[in-house]
Amino acid sequence: MPRVIIADDNQALLDLLSEFSRRAGWTPETCLTGAQIKDAIGSGTEPALLLIDIMMPVMDGIEAIDQISEIDRPLRIRFMTGGNSASLIAAKLIASARGLQVGRNIFKPIGREKYLQILEEEASLLAELGHVRSGST
User: Fold this and answer.
1) Predicted confidence (pLDDT) per residue in 28-47, tens digit
2) b/e burial code for range 28-46 (CB count within 10 A of at least 16 → b)
3) Which of 27, 95, 122, 123 is most deeply buried (CB count within 10 A of its CB)?
4) Counting runs of H as helices and runs of E as strands, what totals does the chain give?
């Protein structure tokens, strides 16, 4: 099962996206702050998708990039926001400069169909990352 880590300070959104993820065959894990992301990623080696809200308490999505870039495992990131797109652009540029793979941004609110489409797109990209990582192309 592909893994998705969803970081957002809105518990209702976390619950909703987790349920959508489970129904689509993904294993979701949630974080209420950016500070929880590194622990959620853990020490495994399987690829993971990170959906990260830009604005969160304690540590926001942009601040979390530094910690995420230290992790040696195949990851893909999509940044989310319900507001300012300038922050999304900055986050994407910073993450890309640190060598992280970043997909298109997500603007909230996000509907079920759009979310499932994102998961479908990312599943194939994560599968490719896993094959490249294991050396079997």
Assistant:
1) 999 999 999 999 998 667 88
2) bbbbbbbbbbbeebeeeeb
3) 95
4) 5, 6
* pLDDT for 125: 94
Tokens 């896993």 correspond to what residue?
130
The stretches of the chain forming alpha helices (DSSP H) are 11-23, 37-41, 61-69, 85-97, 112-134
Supply the pLDDT for residue 42.
Answer: 85
Q: Which of 29, 5, 2, 130 is nearest to 79 (CA)?
A: 5
Across the range 22-27, mean pLDDT stands at 96
User: How many structural domains compose the chain?
Assistant: 1
Buried b (16+ CB within 10 A) or exposed e, 114-126: ebeebbeebbebb
Task: Please report, for the domain that includes residue 121, its CATH number.
Answer: 3.40.50.2300
pLDDT band at 106 (very low <50, low <70, confident <90, very high): very high
Cis before 109 (ω within 30):
yes
